[in-house]
Amino acid sequence: MANCLRRFGRLGLISKAKNGKRELYSTTSVSPASGDNTSSTKSINLFTAVNQALHIALDSDPRSYVFGEDVGFGGVFRCTTGLADRFGKQRVFNTPLCEQGIVGFAIGLAAMDNRAIAEIQFVDYIYPAFDQAGDIPIVNEAAKFRYRSGNQFNCGGLTIRAPYGAVGHGGHYHSQSPEAFFCHVPGIKVVIPRSPRQAKGLLLSCIRDPNPVVFFEPKWLYRLAVEEVPENDYMLPLSEAEVIREGSDITLVGWGAQLSIMAEACVEAEKDGISCELIDLRTLLPWDKETVEASVKKTGRLLISHEAPVTGGFGAEISASIVERCFLRLEAPVARVCGLDTPFPLVFEPFYMPTKNKILDAIKATVSY
Amino acid sequence: MSLIHRSSSLLKPLAAGPASLLRRSFSSVTDDDATKITVETSVPFTGHRIDPPPRTIDTTPKELMTFFVDMARMRRMEIAADSLYKSKLIRGFCHLYDGQEAVAVGMEAAITRKDCIITAYRDHCIFLGRGGTLLEAFAELMGRKAGCSKGKGGSMHFYKKDGGFYGGHGIVGAQVPLGCGLAFAQKYSKEDHVTFTLYGDGAANQGQLFEALNMAALWDLPAILVCENNHYGMGTAEWRAAKSPAYYKRGDYVPGLKVDGMDVFAVKQACKFAKEHVLKNGPIILEMDTYRYHGHSMSDPGSTYRTRDEISGVRQERDPIERIRKLILSHDIASEKELKDIEKEARKEVDEAIAQAKESPMPEPSELFTNVYVKDHGVEVFGVDRKEVRTVLA
Ligand SMILES: Cc1ncc(C[n+]2csc(CCOP(=O)(O)OP(=O)(O)O)c2C)c(N)n1
Ligand SMILES: [Mg+2]
């Protein structure tokens, strides 16, 4: 799997970014947990950033644990490399192949005031654990534990990490983006980073957040995205969107790997004189409506883009909320450029994907509505 | 854990057939050849809550030759798939079956196409066993129209309805309850057919497996749960993941049988036995002790979590094709050269199938939107630049 990540150069922008374009790498509010603001940075890729965050999490809290399928060996994407050696097999360990068990176990561990950091090998395999996520596996267990016990219990120390999204040829079961399912579950947080620096800071925040969090990592970017990342311990705020490009004609909202595609579209649109504002939502649940609202009030137009199928995608929620808040300021219908309403295809992935040209088309159509 | 433990003395014929058998050309081995050969399985079966079948099994020169031909073709197909992958003609995920051929071939020899088989993603050879062609296999691997799933499934999703093959499934363990559903339908229609549900040693730890077992036992379904224990789930050795790696016992109240999955005769005997058993008594687990030579998938070199000695030891001591080769030679059914020629022929067949598969076009772009529902709903769809493909599907 890891190999295939190297082969695909969809992210022209990531490399260009090094030559001075800043779309994806504006650095807001890096708030060092340690208060040390002078930390040096190093150029690393996204899986290394995740790995650093896990090292710091385990190092800074002796009650934290990392486990999942093959994580003791470093995991399929190398995110957990070196952890077992450094922190021991008691705290970093392999589980059997049993996702529902993994997440249920993690909820129990977290209920005893520990930080349980569970890895699901691919987000496509999270469904067996879906029940667990809600309340304590994800949907029925984790999300509702605090609520149904009247705050006696919770699994706030739970963080579930899983790689999501397209990689070029992952096919039906190594490409999906299921974030919308989880955004329908009050009680959990859903966070998706766009770059190495974001990944490290957001992951540390998720691990330390007193609520259960699912953290979806864009696997396309594991190796492709490289950025200067502070070496120290820092956290980035949850539920705070970030404006990563300012503009006046239209607001674009996205998250994760899709932002790099949207950023390319913004650059193209600029050549046609259209000024785009690009927002990284970062936390999808609970999401930062205010930042999006303020932007749309300024631009009067909104486009949302995600890889997941358009129908019932999280774009629909954003669209509805913003129409409620900005109805009189909107100058065009909200545009959604998303995955098609088909299973994620093995052949014709480019047709399925919300590509740059599709976004560009929608930008032009919306601006000239 | 010793994987290399088969004594080769077992390869000696138990009972030599009639004298007429002495050295004939294998081409004279015909359908009505009544010559009987009795062989003994490599090791005894081990039963759990059941008396195992006998170790001896009758065969014929024709069957021996068929086993050789079928397994040689499968082996060649997988090796060719490996090179096609490396030359980027196959993309995505691809899991090879070489080493495990005796399971596919032995199982097929014991059952009919009215019996169902359902498996995980390591499905190429099961598909061939069910009557699929090399062309359909390679075309599917390369995402072409002529593929068994019209190029839309790829390596992990081979299917063949008319051969009773319910396919290749990507989510580990998910096919096991499905197999119970198939078996229920068979039982309900009062046909004497059964379902073989294949899963790996890694999958054996999934909760759904136990849910499926309970249902199958509760309703006495004609379901045979075949655990293809190749001793690793990706990079994880069985003992790292399972408190009890005696998978044939893990049904507790469901009987089980441990079988040498590298011995096609043992597999055949076990499957025949299991079929009779489940039609009368409800489910059984067959644990096939087998081995995959390749890594888990194409991105796994397969050598970091096991030693090269282990792999070459299995190849030397237990290879399913070599076992049959030795039997054929010791019974003087064909010469070394004739067997070599068969392997050459397999290579040729595979090469021809690949050439043909390459000629097959990609599916039409509109195929992206078909088969989502029975009748595809009227969404407007468009290609990369909205002009390339734009159609409203009614
Ligand atoms: C639910 C689920 N979890 C994880 C995976 C990733 N995965 C694919 S194959 C595999 C190992 C399975 O091993 P085993 O069942 O022994 O079958 P084998 O590959 O040896 O044939 C894993 C972990 C998956 N496909 N589905
Ligand atoms: Mg296995």
Automatic annotation (TrEMBL), chain A:
GO terms for cellular component: mitochondrial matrix. Its cofactor is thiamine diphosphate. Residues 44-224 form the Transketolase-like pyrimidine-binding domain. InterPro entries: THDP-binding, Transketo_C/PFOR_II, Transketolase-like_Pyr-bd, Transketolase_C. It is found in: Mitochondrion matrix. It catalyses: N(6)-[(R)-lipoyl]-L-lysyl-[protein] + 3-methyl-2-oxobutanoate + H(+) = N(6)-[(R)-S(8)-2-methylpropanoyldihydrolipoyl]-L-lysyl-[protein] + CO2. SUPFAM superfamilies: Thiamin diphosphate-binding fold (THDP-binding), TK C-terminal domain-like. Coiled coil: none annotated. One of its GO terms (biological process) is response to nutrient. Its EC number is 1.2.4.4. The keyword Transit peptide applies. One of its GO terms (molecular function) is branched-chain 2-oxo acid dehydrogenase activity. SMART domains: Transket_pyr (SM00861). It holds the Pfam family Transket_pyr. Transmembrane segments: none annotated. Its main location: mitochondrion. Keywords: Mitochondrion, Oxidoreductase, Transit peptide. Heterotetramer of alpha and beta chains. This is 3-methyl-2-oxobutanoate dehydrogenase (2-methylpropanoyl-transferring). It comes from Escallonia rubra. The lineage of its organism: Eukaryota, Viridiplantae, Streptophyta, Embryophyta, Tracheophyta.
Automatic annotation (TrEMBL), chain B:
It is an enzyme of class 1 (oxidoreductase). Tetramer of 2 alpha and 2 beta subunits. GO terms for molecular function: pyruvate dehydrogenase (acetyl-transferring) activity. Pfam families: E1_dh (PF00676). The keyword Transcription does not apply. InterPro entries: DH_E1, PDH_E1_Alpha_Subunit, Pyrv_DH_E1_asu_subgrp-y, THDP-binding. The keyword Oxidoreductase applies. Residues 70-365 form the Dehydrogenase E1 component domain. One of its GO terms (biological process) is pyruvate decarboxylation to acetyl-CoA. It comes from the Eukaryota. This is Pyruvate dehydrogenase E1 component subunit alpha.
